[in-house]
Amino acid sequence: MELPFAESYKIKMVESLRRSSQSEREHWIKEAGYNLFNLKSDQVFVDLLTDSGTGAMSDRQWSEMMLGDESYAGASSYYKLKNAIAEITGFGYFLPTHQGRAAENVLFSAMISESDVIPGNAHFDTTKGHIEFRKATAIDCTIDEAFDTSLDHPFKGNLDLAKLEAVYQRYPLNRIPMVIITVTCNTSGGQPVSMQNIRDVSALSKRYGVKVVFDAARFAENAYFIKTREAGFESTSILDIVKEMFSYGDAMTMSSKKDAIVNMGGFIGFREEELFRKASVFNIMFEGFITYGGMSGRDMNALAQGLYEGTCFDYLETRIKQVAYLGSLLRDAGIPVQYPFGGHAIFVDAKRFLPQLPREQYVAQTLAVELYLEGGVRGVEIGTIMADRDPITRENRYPELEMVRLAIPRRTYTDNHMKYVAACLINVWNRRHNITKGYVITSEAPILRHFTVSLEKAK
After folding, report:
1. What is the spatial distance between Cα 134 and Cα 414, in angstroms, rounded to a whole number?
2. What confidence tens digit (pLDDT) does each residue in 175-193 have?
3. Which of 28, 80, 117, 240 has the fewest CB atoms within 10 Å, i.e. the most exposed one?
């Protein structure tokens, strides 16, 4: 008989989880202002809020932590990480930061000015936040196919070249410091970008003199999809695909809490020494000296090892097949999800799930709360609350996609947990017609409001 698929690891240590009652969850979520970020971790049974920093490190990563060099300057851990980054990504210059949004803060401080425009494929929340904080504008150039969750398109993260060139032609080029390619594209459902699209975006941008910057938090998962979905790459190794991807870029920001499978860490990769030196000034101001940049030596060691593990095909296959397993359970039950399934999460189409709710009552947030109430499963809204208000009009921005993201931590949960999550959501699906009220905001921050927003039930 054909051998079934099995995980490429075994479990060495476990952490206990506590099941809660529905009455407890009703009390806790009300206390939290119906904001899932405000819940305590022990009030959650299966935590799919994020895959960022929530994965399980390997025995080799833990071993590397014991070898960390905590010297303030010139630590051996810095050079170990530098060599790993150069070998895997091809970027010869880098700055360590404590996480991805810190990398954005440093790089954007060096590159973005007021009134600039930054095109890209569905910028994620912190990326857009850092752009708008600098009074610049993020312009989404994602292909239209990304917004049809039922459409089977292998690379819904792709940039639309016509949309991108229209930006280049409409605005003065000295106001376009970069185009951002997010791999995989989180906001469109963890969807990959094809190698051909990366090549085309790079060639177009070079013609106009615009730098290409990768938001590379999930670059290895993107490489896996190129290998398994794009013609001509079937026999190419993940590492070779990664090197080609990054060869078309001028710089990259990395939240290492994703594909490097660490709990904390990030970095910026640079092609040119000039930009590296300009950004170094801000790294010293905001993060630390350029050879530690907000990271301890032990964390740099774990990160370096995680980069090698995260680009291993067997690991990637295990990780992405678990995501697809959850997606298949939901899709088979008739639940509308972004298809094809992404690399790090399943995205539930809340507008198709709860079409009876008005958008002003935050449809995706309502669905996320209902899922928590059903079984203690914590997801996150990727919709109107996360889209924030327009910085000029202060009106809500209503994105085309209203999603609940179920982000799966790496090497953390079993397939039985995926069955449990699916059963919870199927139960909500079966009573969806009884959900007739959403939520209204009672207090919010002026930017990146979704982290701390408070809500109450709509009257």
Report:
1. 42
2. 999 999 999 999 889 999 9
3. 240
Radius of gyration of the chain (CA): 21
Structurally, how many domains does the chain consist of? 2
Domain for residue 242, yes or no?
A: yes
Q: pLDDT at residue 423 above 90? A: yes
pLDDT in tens, 333-349: 999 999 999 999 999 99
Q: What would the two tokens of residue 131 be? A: 């752009």
Q: Give the DSSP letter string of 413-436.
A: S-HHHHHHHHHHHHHHHHTGGG--
Q: Which pLDDT value is given to residue 125?
A: 87
Segments forming the whole domain that contains residue 120: 59-310
Residues in the chain, total: 459
Question: In this structure, what token pair is assigned to residue 323?
Answer: 């995501």
Name residue, tokens 């790496």.
410
Mean pLDDT, the chain, integer? 97
Residue 384 pLDDT more than 90? Answer: yes
**338 shares its domain with 298:** no
Indicate whether 283 and 369 sit together in one domain: no
Gap between the Cα atoms of 329 and 325, Å rounded: 6
pLDDT(375) > 90: yes
Q: Are residues 201 and 71 in the same domain?
A: yes
Distances from the Cα of 240 to the Cα of 213, 224, 237, 292, angstroms: 19, 11, 5, 28
Nearest CA-CA partner of 385 in 407, 357, 360, 356: 360
Is the Cβ–Cβ distance between 175 and 225 less than 8 Å?
Answer: no
| 91-131 residue pLDDT tens | 999 999 999 999 999 999 999 999 999 999 999 889 999 99
Residues 448, 151: Cα–Cα separation, whole Å: 30
